[in-house]
Amino acid sequence: MAASVFDSPHFARLFPTGEAGRLFTDTAEVRAMLLVEGALAKVQGDMGLIPKESAYFIHRSAMEVQVDPSGLADATGTNGVSVPGLVSAFRKAMEAPEHAQYIHFGATSQDVIDTGLMLRLRSLLTLCEKDLRATLSALAALAEAHADTPMSARTYGQHATLTSFGAQAAEWGRPLLGLLDELPALRDACLMVSLSGAAGTSGAFGPQAPTIRAGLAKDLNLADPGQSWHTDRTPILRIADWLTRISLALAKLGEDLIAMAMSGIGEVDLGGGGGSSTMPQKQNPVAPSALVALAAQARSHLLTLQGASVQKHQRDGAAWFTEWLTLPQLCLSAASALIIAKDQTARLSPRIEAMAQSVQEPLGLVHAEALSFALAATMPRPDAQAATKALCQEALASDTPLATLAARDFPALDAATLFSPAHQMGQAPTEARAFAATVRARS
Predict the structure, then answer these.
(1) What pLDDT, on the 0 to 100 scale, is given for residue 279?
(2) Nearest to 183 by CA among 122, 101, 249
(3) Helix, strand or coil for residue 58?
(4) Class of domain 13-355
(5) Which segments within 261-301 are labelled E, that is strand?
(6) Where residue 273 falls among pLDDT bands split at 50, 70, 90?
(7) Structural domain boundaries in the chain
(8) pLDDT of residue 263
(9) With left for phi above 0 and alpha for psi between -120 and 50, is residue 312 left, alpha or beta?
């Protein structure tokens, strides 16, 4: 097995990462850092801090030069960061020492690495939003189409009262809708440049430091933090938290689908399942299981990132290295979960006959709560509950439907209406349609 399933060719369809996978490669990181170096030179040239001709040459070269990441290995192993090796390779590749001397003027390695990371995280959030919207659209379609399709709700894994499959789809989608709503503010607050120099003081830039930083932010279309955030990892933590909550919301979908697809329940059609090497009759809930596993990975990495956010003094190499080890895995866990969920929700459909079997089970005990409230209209609530419980016990003991016993003891009840699934779903159909309408309004 590969060190990471995201780098494994034979796990590529089980844990797909799509375009997001390309953002967390050595090539993508080097390219992002070169763009930062080029933008910094351009801003400094416009301000007259370095020769304008050199700034133009560096900026153009940053978009054209190819630096082999493997060539940075020795320098990175020695220095602990890749930027010194990258700057050296960039200068050499430019073949113009009179201009190359102004590369990385006044910046520190963390400025370049963190700003380059933000460029990649911006692209990641864009990809996640696209797949999130597609998943929400699929869930909204299910919610609207099956707003009135009754199914048994479950508490503690057991049949409780009635809901609708549309309401179940809305339940899966509402947390995702909330996360989608958070995205604009998350982007504005967290996607920012870093330009603070060796100890976070911007000492090499002098009084022009704020202007240079603002110019870099504008050129890269990132926010200007107005300060150093070398050891304040709040922006990273907030993005990581959002991605983890995406994974957790999709794990809820996965857990429910695993249960609903179980043998003997079979209330959903997953649109295809995995086969067994020895049991040809099986169709395993592979995609839902992957959603659950990816969430487990994401939340464990978030915990590690939170620990790494406690950083010593003005720079902390060990904490920073810990971030490198965990953040890419967390990001790809969320991206992979969204790809899987997008595909699974597009193929998902209810097995209405199987749902009807649990709704219309012979004894009708799923209607017990409705019966107790109906009786409470004419007697004290505790008495209504006691009477209903006694009838349920009699139904089990005598194998007699609850409706029959209720009609016997309480002939004034409208049993036909009371025990009709269409009348016992409460607000479920309304909430399903409201969710679908909200998703449509945000698309």
Answers:
(1) 38
(2) 122
(3) helix
(4) mainly alpha
(5) 268-269
(6) low
(7) 13-355, 365-418
(8) 63
(9) beta
